[in-house]
Amino acid sequence: MPSxxxxxxxxxxxxxxxxxxxxxxxxxxxxxxxxxxxxxxxxAQRQRTLDAAAQKGLPLPADFVAWxxxxxxxxxxxxxxxxxxxxxxxxxxSLEIELGEPLVRQDYPQLALAFAMQxxxxxxxxxxxxxxxxxxxxPGERPLPDVSPRQPATLVIPGDPRVPVDTKAKDRALDVxxxxxxxxxxHAPIEVEVTQKELPPLEYDxxxxxxxxxxxxxxxxxxARPLVGADVIADPALQLEFNQYMAGHGHADVKLECGDxxxxxxxxxxxxxxxxRERIAAAHELFHRAYRNKGRMPAERDRAPSQAESFLWxxxxxxxxxxxxxxxxxxxxxxxxxxxxxxLLMLVADDQPLREREDIWRQFRDDAVFRTYGExxxxxxxxxxxxxxxxxxxxxxxxxxxxxxxKDGGVCGTMGNIGARTYRIAxxxxxxxxxxxxxxxxxxxxxxxxxxYRCVGGQYATGGDEVTTVHAGxxxxxxxxxxxxxxxxxxxxxxxxxVGGFVDGLVLRRMWDAASPEVKxxxxxxxxxxxxxxxxxxxxxxxxxxxxxxxxxxxxVIGEVFAEVVPDGKELQLYRDTVRxxxxxxxxxxxxxxxxxxxxxxxxxxxxxxxxxxxxxARTWRGIGGDAEFTQRCVAAVQRYVASPERTADKRASAEFxxxxxxxxxxxxxxxxxxxxxxxxxxxxAGHEALRVRKKVSLDPAVAALxxxxxxxxxxxxx
Length: 719
What we know:
Number of domains: 3
Distance between the termini: 27 Å
Number of helices: 29
Oligomer: single chain
Number of strands: 9
Helix content: 40-55%
């Protein structure tokens, strides 16, 4: 239930928890987590890493090792932030070999460190994925970075890879693809309707002086253009003409039956007829294959750039000053490549091919064009084959490119990718992010006035930060994976507050990972306190302590330490709630305290915390008095909810409570029992079924869910 509905005294809860710990071995094992311990750990890791490099015969110049050691913060980052620091150290040296000492050591050391750190998690790919917004840090073979002598890297932007094939060659037999292309390219141009922006005509005053010209307006007109595959897929007359042409050239087996504008240039409806969809998909493949084989489209997507190539590309752009038009188009301060490395990880993970990036960058550089959204096309976007068929035509870029997304359109996933990729092309760390039924974007933001950083969201639709999960891998726990938005916000806040403290928090987490089971079983409180005192946003360390808690009591103690150290306030409420929920999830994963007294103490603590873990609450309440206690407390929760001012102040409160109620429902076994339980809850809602928020009246979402379970018609609420 929302945290402000009811809270008992923190002191009482703390005392109750302390009683649980009497006789435990919490303080039996001691380990230091201070500055000396951190430095000692890093020193040991450094020696192990250098020894490993030597054993593998990997050359590391003494001046390079000395440069890493020269800055204590850099040394802790290289040797202390990963379980195995060797890939980080070698990655840094590999970049230095290809880019030269000035770029790596003097001009862009944080960017280099970000590439080395990110590269230590990624599995190299021979082909571009165009930024795989999936989880970094997953399983896979990761070859160590190359530290052998080699030629410096150079920035070369590939040209258009298409090499048009003569489809009317006299020295060979023409194939199916030749005839497909010839039909399209020999056909008379067709007339299509297009909408484009044009400036109004000039007007002159009596003296012949031109008046100020108005803004560009959308003008729809018909223009002639060459025939493309999508036109044939849309038009039955063209399909018949195509079939006859192919039969006349010895390919009677090639026939198109795509229907009358079932899929066309402006389609938005999905195709539900399976047979028809298969015919259209085959037609798309026919044209797409011909375009690729005959050099009208690239045969495959451009390769992903190497880290050195990507580094050079970002640096070249960074050294070009932005003019006023570009700054206005960007709508945010330029993100500095001198920012601390944790903030740059989203940026350096980008593997979009350089030719694709360059095309977008030139539009931004030359014309201040910064498009973070495309054409929203509706349900057909859920069918990639149909979406592709609707506009298949010659094109310089492959599927998966941002350019193809602009051409073909899409829904939220496409829009999120356009936005995140475009920001990264402009040098802003960004990623797509998931929301319930929606794809959004997140990005890092720089505030020049005070040098601080934030992680902010965009293109939100179904909620705020609290329901947003970032697709970029959050690797600070050394495991990686998609994590909620607040995880990335702690990175921005921690670095803004004190980058040294943030890095120390990561080193402490690695120390914790390396600690003995006895230390982890007994020292969670001391470890969590030490990490949070260095950095209140040391979430990776807090996660380690929570996950290792051997009992519900000790998990709750870690939650207490967090609540003591992290400042209260609206700005950090999501962070506090997230850690609270993680603690409660750990408590649920552990055996329940035995006996009614222990269950009562736990219930009081959960109430104090504002627990929203329905499964944990249900288990605890049943531990006090069985199903009767569970139902009674559910009714009490409804009563507090309907009396709370939060209910009518913000729709999020009602959405949260509806989720809690549904969680309680899942804890009731049996369809009949759930129906009876829902009826009891509806009785508790009697007279409060309507939800009035900011003069808008609607049915409370919890009531709607309960009515469905109880088999009742939802009550009508007056507007």
